[in-house]
Amino acid sequence: MAVEKLKRIVPYIIILFVSLYFYYLAGHFRFSAKPGNLGPDFWPKLLLALTVVACVYEIIKTAFFLKVAPLKKAAEEQPAKAESKKKTYPGLLVIGIAMTVAYAYFVTTLGFILCTFLYFALFMIVGRYRKIWAILANSLIGTLVLVVIFMKIVYVSMPLGQEPFSGVTFFVLKMLGIK
Amino acid sequence: MGDIFYNLLLGFVACFQPMNLILLVAGTIIGLLVGVLPGLTLVMGVVLALPFTYPMDVTPAIVLLTAMYVTGTYGGAFTSILFRIPGEPIHVPLLWDGYAMARKGQPAKALGWTLYAALFGGLLSSVIMVTLSQPVAKFALTFSTPEYFAIVLFGLTSVVSLGSGSMTNAFISLFLGLLISTVGVDSTYGTPRFAFGYPILMDGIEFLTVMVGCYGVGEVITRLGEGFSTAPVEKVSSMKTSLPRWRELRGLKATFLRSSLLGHIVGIVPGAGATIASFVTYGVERQYGKRRKELGSGIPEGIVAPQAAATASVGGAMIPLLTLGVPGSGATAVMLGAFLLHGIQPGPQVFITSANMVYTVFASLFLGIVLMCVVGYIAIKPLVKILDFPEAVVSVYIMLLCFVGALSIRNSISDLWLMVAFGVVGYFFDRIKFPIAPLVLGTILGPLAETSFMTTMISFQNDWTIFFRRPISGTVIALTIIALIVPMFKSFQTVARKR
Fold first, then answer.
1. Interatomic CA distance for residues B161 and B92, integer angstroms
2. What is the mean pLDDT of residues B186-209?
3. Are residues A54 and A80 in the same domain?
4. What total number of domains does chain A contain?
5. Contacts of A108 in chain B (CB under 8 A)
């Protein structure tokens, strides 16, 4: 029961401490306001104070007033609910997040085209799609479509990558007639 | 009034310019597809379309987004009725009577009722929108900063009080959103706030980064964590629309009218949107409808009420966006972003400076509604085919459009990093039951809220009672307090009853 309550409280505790830290930072803004006028720290401090109040309220409510059924008992009482609960795949989730972070990290090195192609293919594999030809076709066509739309029509400046990977980018751009 | 008709006529003419027309048709089809696909919400669809509008003029850009927005309220009806898959939360009420009617062997008739409901609700709401917008804009010209602050506060509060789930969580989410909007150089004093010396943070955090991250990346990550395990759709024998007869329609005229008007009004309330409109009208039908006891068994009233309201909410949501610059829903928040990206600040002035653009958008809404019903009538089969695409394939396209969207905001990799970070935030918010809408709306309306508050304080010598003493701001603040107290009171009542 205590563990269940703690689980519920943890997010509020984290937000509370982060808010207090930011409140401290807001107290150190450098500005020169006329005496009696509100400074640029007022608004963020107000918001942070309200966040702290909301977190404290929720922590007290959960810790002292909320009746949480023990985990085992709750599961026994609601077998149907437990059954209908969706199956989760934490491994896929971690890989998915890691791949997304990796995309942001490598896109400047590999270039938009190569990085996007790899992300396309790997994401589909991680997403438990197993038709290899469809994966390759989607990755290739998807990447080229995005390149044509955004680099040729919409004119968005996408990362070209660094040597030797930029060679791939320039080759593809040349093939597509993009200068 | 003559002015309005004349401008609207010019708007219709502008809609038939090739570029606008192409985008109107494209927006209609894409909007229907977005509505059909479960997991790709209407707001997400509009967000993903935003990067495509960068090279366009503001008018075609808004025409595209408006068409997507309005048709997104209709596409999900097909899958709700035929397969019991609501493409959007808006269409959950359609499962109760729409799917029930389909199970009784009348799927074509159920689709016919939704078509008429969307058409009637959408057109009536558009007429009201066109009629009301200019007078509201004229009235809004008299507003000063206290009124603006009061209106923004009302919008932010209603998003909290109208949401389902914990109000405290919604408040925390809202405060965090408002806080995100304070990052960067302060507009009054030029002081850097929470920038930590990073140049990109000095320029502030773009709300589009927050929006694309939380709605797009966060949602896809969540679904990946569930293993993309959406069940395959069942085979349906008939997939066509059969229109109800005139006599049948006349029998439901009260439901059509009531739901459309209510949907429009709910749409005007900032933060409410189509989902709340469809649930509220279904609830009203359950309380006041002629055949309320039969609701849920597959009767047309249960189909017409939510669908008419959902589509009618679009016209309602456009009014505060265009006349006050305050978005009435998630999708209109993205449109606000599109306006700002093109250097136009929606508000009362826009009716003077860009009247042509405003009336072209109005006209495109009328045409979009008619077009959506025509496309929905003739092309339901190919539209629903998109459900056969594997979720992993659709999701990777969504992810990459999010990446491109983030990269193209300021051509900066830092925005990509921020978007990924907000994607993770979106995922955790979903896990710990913190609503995302207040966070996003807080980020969007934060600068307006702060500027109008600070300017008022400076102009009125820090006299905060000014918000209560001026008639309009006082009334709006009173409404805000009511909007806060009523759900709190109801929640206490529920707790007391349980004890």
1. 21
2. 87
3. yes
4. 2
5. 413
The reply to whether A76 and A115 lie within a common domain is no
Inter-chain CB proximity B227 and A25 less than 8 Å: no
**Min Cα separation A135/chain B (Å):** 8
Task: Please indicate, yes or no, whether residues A29 and A61 belong to a single structural domain of this protein.
Answer: yes
B28-40 pLDDT, tens digit per residue, is 998 888 887 766 7
Which residue of B lies nearest to A57 if distances are taken between CA atoms?
A: B168
Do A44 and A94 share a structural domain? no
Q: What is the ipTM of this complex?
A: 0.88
CA of B35: how far to CAs of B31, B41, B79, B99, B264, in Å? 6, 7, 9, 17, 20
What's the pLDDT score for residue A83?
47
Is B225–A89 a contact, with Cβ atoms under 8 angstroms apart?
Answer: yes
Categorize the per-residue pLDDT at A82 as very low, low, confident or very high, splitting at 50, 70 and 90: very low
- Nearest chain B residue (CA) to A157: B411
User: Is B423 in Cβ contact with A29 (below 8 Å)?
Assistant: no
Nearest CA to CA, how far is B400 from chain A (Å)?
7
Structure tokens at A79: 């077998």
Q: Which pTM was predicted?
A: 0.82
Does one domain contain both A100 and A167? yes
Where is the domain boundary, A84, A116, A146? A84
Residue B395 at interface with chain A, using a CB cutoff of 8 Å = yes
- What residues have CB less than 8 Å from B390, skipping those under 6 apart? A127, A129, B228
Burial class (CB in 10 A: 0-12, 13-18, 19+), B187: middle
d(CA B352, CA B343): 15
Q: Which residues of B touch A44 (CB under 8 A)?
A: 179, 182, 193-194
Kindly state the tokens that stand for B36.
């059909």
Do A107 and B390 count as a contact with CB atoms less than 8 A apart?
no
Q: Is the CB of residue B171 less than 8 Å away from at least one CB of chain A?
A: yes
Q: Is B135 at the interface with chain A, CB within 8 A? A: no
Q: What is the pLDDT of residues B67-93, one digit of tens each?
A: 998 998 888 888 788 877 776 778 888
Check if A9 contacts B (Cβ < 8 Å).
no
Which structural domain, as residue segments, surrounds residue A63? 2-84
> Which pLDDT score is estimated for B231?
62
- A15 and A33: one domain? yes
In the listed set A57, A84, A111, which residue is the last one of a domain according to the structure? A84
A47 in contact with chain B, both atoms CB, cutoff 8 A: yes
Chain B: nearest CA to A150, how far in angstroms? 8
Q: Which residues contact B313 (CB under 8 A, 6 or more apart)?
A: B73, B125, B263, B264, B266, B267, B272, B273, B274, B277, B278, B329
B432 touches chain A (CB under 8 A): yes
**B253's tokens:** 């005229």
> pLDDT digit string (tens) for B106-141?
888 888 999 999 999 999 999 999 998 888 888 888
pLDDT digits (tens, 9 = 90+) for A133-146: 999 999 999 999 88
- φ and ψ at B192, to 5 degrees? -70, 135
Domain layout of chain B by residue ranges:
2-498
Judge: B400–A120 Cβ closer than 8 Å, yes or no: yes
CB A27 within 8 A of CB A41: yes
Chain A residue closest to B179 (CA)? A44
> Would you call A37 and B175 a contact, using CB atoms and an 8 Å cutoff?
no
Q: Any CB–CB contact under 8 A between B229 and chain A?
A: yes
Which residues, at least 6 apart from B59, have a Cβ–Cβ distance to it below 8 Å?
Answer: B14, B20, B356, B357, B360, B361
Residues A111 and A80 in one domain: no
